Amino acid sequence: MLLASPAVRPAITGAGVAWAARERGLRAVICMSELVPRAKVEGIRALGAEARIVGRSQDDAQDEVQRLVAEDGLAEIPPFDDARVIAGQGTIGLEIMARRPDLDTLLVPLSGGGLAAGVALAARTIKPDIRIIGVSMDRGAAMHESLAAGRPVAVEEVASLADSLGGGIGTENRLTLAMCRDLLDEAVLVSEDDIYRAMQVLYYEDRLVAEGASAVGLAAVLTGRVRLRGPAATIVTGRNPDMALFTRVVTGQDVVLGDLTVRGRVYGGGSVDGP
User: Fold this and answer.
1) Which of 30, 42, 93, 197 has its CA 20 to 30 Å from the CA of residue 100?
2) Looking at the structure, do residues 228 and 125 belong to the same domain, yes or no?
3) Does the predicted model carry a pTM greater than 0.70?
4) pLDDT tens digits, 14-61
5) If you average pLDDT over every residue of the chain, what do you get?
6) How many helices (H) and strands (E) does the chain have?
7) Nearest to 111 by CA among 6, 258, 247, 250
8) Phi, psi angles (nearest 5°) of residue 175
9) For 131-189, what is each residue's pLDDT tens digit?
């Protein structure tokens, strides 16, 4: 059996597919855009998968996946809009609620919606009145724009500290848009400056090497875009940032993201708004 998958999102990472394929002795082709950091590409190749770079967006990468399925007979592993993927992500919600059944607010990184939909479904089934907030970066947030429009919206994919949250939700989205609409209380956006600061806080206060996509929940709290009313949790995933970029962030240097420069700042301590 041959596998093909787009490699973004916290939902299914290229590295995860590559590792699973290697363990089963299968060929894996991971399709990525030019915006995926080189460190992630090399990590996938180190696990034995073929990393195929296609175009400037994950929509371009998805087109290549469809071609491989149609012409080469590969089996597609969807990155987010799939019932089994959503269910798998839901186990994170189960674990969180088992540890902290008293949670008032749960913040989830929001991209294609597989992670947010699965976690929200699990958490809300256990505690119907829990507040669940999806958080995206404010550059190319496809699910946020699609929720506002009530339909899948194509957005320009650009470089971001939260690169794993980039990409569209698919024009034929079957599951995640509706689930995020019905299960999330709110979707909020944070800036690259906000993400930069949150990455520093996670590193200096919690000793966590976290990529930008997993820092968006904390960023929303630190900036006051989400006010906490009681016990809260966020999901910190993906301990695989580009270490050169990560080093620039934690040492307070400027970071260039395409046409945007995030001005560096020396870490001076973090504070969380709310109780």
Assistant:
1) 197
2) yes
3) yes
4) 888 899 999 999 999 999 888 888 888 988 999 999 999 988 887 888
5) 90
6) 10, 10
7) 6
8) -125, -50
9) 999 999 999 999 999 999 999 998 988 999 999 898 889 888 999 999 999 999 999 99
Average pLDDT over residues 93-122: 97
Instruction: For residue 63, give the CATH number of its domain.
Output: 3.40.50.1100
Residue 32 half-sphere exposure toward CB, CA atoms < 13 A: 30
Dihedral class, residue 170 (left if φ above 0, else alpha if ψ from -120 to 50, else beta): left
Cα 262–241–249 angle (5° rounding)? 30
Question: Can you point out the beta strands (E) in the chain?
Answer: 2-6, 27-32, 50-53, 75-76, 105-109, 131-137, 186-190, 232-234, 255-257, 260-262
Work out how many domains the chain is built from and give that number.
Answer: 2
148 in the same domain as 219: yes
Complete DSSP assignment for 13-28:
-HHHHHHHHHHHT-EE
Is residue 274 in some structural domain? no
